[in-house]
Amino acid sequence: MPTENELFAAVDALLAGEPEMPGPAERARLREAAGVTQARLAQVLQTTTQTVKNWEAGRSEPRPPRRQAYQRLLDGWAERFPADRDSATQDTVAPQTLTNGASQAEQTPPPGSASDPAVRTSRGTPLIAPAAPAEQASPRPAPTARSTSPSRRPAAPKADPANTAANHTHPRFENGPLAVIDVDADGQMLAYCVGGLVLDVPAKTIPALVDWTLKDAKLGQPKLSGPGKNADPLLVLTEAALERYGLPVTLTDEERLAGRIPEAHKVIKQLTRADWKLTKRGFGPWARIYRPATGSERACVQLCIPSWHALDSRHWGDAAQLPPAELARILGLYASRVMTPRGSTAVTGLELMTALHPPTRASDPDADGRRYSEHNPGSLGKDPVDCAPCEAPDGHPLLRDLPRFHSRGPAEKLFEEAYDWARPMTDDECTLRHLVGIDVNMAFAAGANGLTVGLGAPTHVKAPVFDPKLPGSWLVDLSHVDLSRVKTGKDKWAELNADLLPSPFTPKGDRPEGPAWYATPTVAYAVELGYEVHPLEAWVRYENGRYLDGWYNRLRDAYLATMADLGVDAALTPTDFLAAMDAHKSRDPELAIVVSAIKATVKGGLGKLRERPRGEGWRPGEPWRALSRPTWRPDIRAAVISRTRINLHRKIVKHAAFTGQYPVAILSDCVVYAASGPSPLDFLPYREGKPLPGGFKLGVNPGLVKHEGTQSVLWGEEVRERFNAPELNLARYIKDGTVTDADNGE
After folding, report:
1. Residue 227, Cβ density class (10 Å: 0-12 exposed, 13-18 middle, ≥19 buried)
2. Residue 206 in contact with residue 271, Cβ under 8 Å?
3. Cα radius of gyration rounded to whole Å, the chain
4. Low-confidence ranges of the chain (pLDDT < 50)
5. Do residues 391 and 638 touch, judged by C-beta distance below 8 A?
6. For residue 363, what is the DSSP state?
7. Who's near 594: CB < 8 A, 6+ residues apart?
8. Degrees, nearest 5: CA angle 453-505-385
9. What order do you get walking across the sheet with 670-675 strand by strand?
10. Which of 58, 288, 431, 716 fits as disulfide partner to 24, beta carbons 3.0 to 4.6 Å?
């Protein structure tokens, strides 16, 4: 039995606690008042200058034995250089009188509370975490202050857009969707979150890191749709973190080709011993570590490893080389505006479709009050459906009975692709000085907007009557459509030079020679141009809807918000828009990376709808992994591409009918015209600031156009002569004029 004196001594020791250090800003003020540089202070305390910078920015806290020495130095400076009451930064929490008369400063605060000195921003404002929901209460004893992930919010190197802060509306995810894990100069593991927040990471192994993430880090993102699931937390491991956790900094050639480290790796063994599992893709650049779900609670953490090429430089630029705080900033912005990355931009684009339209939902309660999983209307469901034979790519199991080297023609295969077309310049065009390229913003996203697509399996119909509102694939002869005379409005026809226009029905711009398979938007455009169509057969989808509308809206909003942050908004005049676009990437190169990733999410997500075999010993006629997904839907991809190409052709026809100008080259969403001046305004028919109705319009919105690049007519003729290619597609090189090899059409 302890004595009264022993108990009082223990209580006095608890009340005394560890001296409270001044906040980060006060530390910097005292050092500067003493005329001491950060380098000199680092020398005295036998640490690095970067560590001192971290202390003064609030990124990390000093630890024993340096903490005591630093505290003594700061106390001495505080006596010599007292703060001016009127102007001093309030860097510590003011003691508050408690009901028993004792001040808050005299009591040891519970770890993680507002008065815990480890929980402060660099400005001294306490960072108070909302209370956890009742169902998340844990019987575990409260850990020490260091292991509760004390949070610090240093001054961000760059101002973040308004909506990039952590999602404080959901207490489970108050620290944001993701964190970049790094090691500081003192060897402390840190988690850099969105908004400049930095957490201490106590985990010494990957299994412990996963456990800490799920129990203490409060990372993740709320679901995007009512029946959906919350996004799993994402951890990005820097090279220093990889070394600390015993993982290779880079993959060998064999590992890179396999897309994973070997199953015998010690880290995988650690995970197995801790009852953690990996998905089928193993421990690779985008690893998912999980335990089977119990009830509605998921236990899953995703890893992103930039040095293993998780962030493709074609879409993410030099993001993999950014410092941790900056990488957290751009990934956090992408997560808040699109979704937490689930893999490549293509994978994320596809996952976004599912997140917005989950395959199932909870049913209404039955007589006993029980709910069951049922199909979610408007989604693609949870089971894959077979495509139509004409929609199947070569090698699909539906085509296994075809002769071995059979090449399917237009009457057997749906071939809806983007434009790759060019023609020789006319004599009149050669007298002009410039070739000007314009590019459609988010063209494929705009093609998805408002598009009705099939949701279920196709139905085969013989000799159908064409219905432009019915999604599907139609076998029809469009060779009779003559572009020299087309309908451009109600009872309004235009005479055009068809030799200078691409056909709207083929990617290469060639006029069809007989029956061929087309998606609904292509056939509907033939009717719009004033011609009758009589399909021979069709595969149509009676169960349909505007599945991609939510997907388009979210990506459009993400794109427009990020462009507005770069100084390009929808309200600019054409002249101001062109000027703003000229310098938008240099205003914030990191935000420009986010724009690139958003655009890649659109194209990649649509491409994933018809993902092809990727090795794995596949042979023609056998199924491949992607076919097991409900989102393997080549018909939806074809419909979007068809509509995108038709949208572009419609603008080209309107422009030709009004101005007599025809494109010289088209590549996907880029169109090149010969013009007398170097600007799009030198050939786009603006009148009093208003564009041609239905034609090209300059602006940032999806479907509008921007300046892609300008070269001279002499450059174009010289390039074509050099490669002896009079129809070389100049749209491919218009941006910077660099031509490295002859155009092979790839």
Report:
1. middle
2. yes
3. 31
4. 86-157, 162-168, 742-746
5. yes
6. P
7. 330, 333, 334, 337, 562
8. 30
9. 420-422, 665-667, 670-675, 434-440, 705-712
10. 58
Give the pLDDT score at 6. 63
The per-residue pLDDT for 539 is 98
Please calculate the CA angle 208-211-214 and round it to the nearest 5 degrees. 150
pLDDT of residue 72: 87
Cα atoms found within 13 Å of the Cα of residue 465, Cβ hemisphere only: 0
Select from 182, 194, 287, 184 the least CA-distant residue to 238: 182
Residue 614 CB neighbour total at 10 angstroms: 10
Residue 18 CA to residue 64 CA, distance in Å, equals 11
For the segment 567-600, what is each residue's pLDDT rounded down to a tens digit? 999 999 999 999 999 989 889 999 999 999 999 9
**CA atoms within a 13 Å half-sphere pointing along the CA-CB vector of 435:** 29
pLDDT recorded at residue 298? 82
Closest CA to 227 of 370, 133, 363, 367: 363
Interatomic CA distance for residues 434 and 714, integer angstroms: 8
DSSP track, 190-205: EEE-GGG-EEE----S
- Residue 75 tokens, joined: 């106390």
Torsion, CA 618, CA 620, CA 621, CA 626, rounded to 10: 50
- Determine the pLDDT at residue 170: 74
Q: How far apart are CA 626 and CA 608, in angstroms?
A: 9
Helix (H, G, I), strand (E, B) or coil at 538: strand
Main-chain phi, psi angles of 5, to 5 degrees: -65, -40
Cα torsion through 566, 570, 575, 577, rounded to 10: 20
Given a contact cutoff of 8 angstroms between Cβ atoms, the answer to whether 248 and 242 are in contact is yes
Residue whose structure tokens are 């208003």: 690
- 3-class DSSP state for residue 645? helix
Give the chain's end-to-end CA distance (angstroms, integer): 85
CB 206 within 8 A of CB 266: no
Kind and range of the H or E run holding 659: helix 634-659
Dig out the tokens for 582 from the structure. Answer: 């000229």
Looking at residue 17, its pLDDT comes to: 56
Token code pair at residue 679? 């600007």
Check residue 51 and give its pLDDT: 79
CA–CA dist 726, 712 (Å, integer):
16
Which of 682, 691, 701, 695 shows the shortest CA–CA distance to 568? Answer: 701
Q: Would strands 234-237 and 297-304 be described as parallel, antiparallel, or unpaired? A: parallel
H-type helices in 245-386, by residue range?
Answer: 253-258, 266-273, 313-316, 324-337, 345-356
pTM of the model as a whole: 0.79
Strands 120-121 vs 151-153: parallel, antiparallel or unpaired: parallel
As a 3-state breakdown, the chain gives helix, strand, coil percent values, each rounded to 5, of: 35, 15, 50
The 10s digit of each residue's pLDDT in 261-301 is: 999 999 999 999 999 999 988 999 999 999 987 766 789 99
Is the CA virtual torsion 341, 346, 349, 353 positive or negative? Answer: negative
Reduce the secondary structure of 375-407 to three states and give it as a string: ECCCCCCCCCCCCCHHHCCCCCHHHCCCCCCCC
Q: Find the helix or strand (DSSP H, E) in which 215 lies.
A: helix 206-215
> What's the confidence (pLDDT) of residue 616?
73
On the question of a cis peptide bond just before residue 507, with omega within 30 degrees of 0, the verdict is no
Spell out the residues 6+ positions from residue 428 whose beta carbon is closer than 8 angstroms to its own.
Answer: none
Question: What is the identity of the amino acid at 577?
Answer: F
Q: How far apart are CA 624 and CA 607, in angstroms?
A: 16
Q: CA 295, CA 50: separation in Å to the nearest integer?
A: 46
DSSP code string of 265-288: -HHHHHHHHTT-EE-TT-SSTEEE
Residue 317, both tokens = 């630029």
CA distance 203 to 662: 64
Residue 369: which region, alpha, beta or left (left: phi > 0; alpha: psi -120 to 50)? left
CB count in 10 Å sphere of residue 276: 19
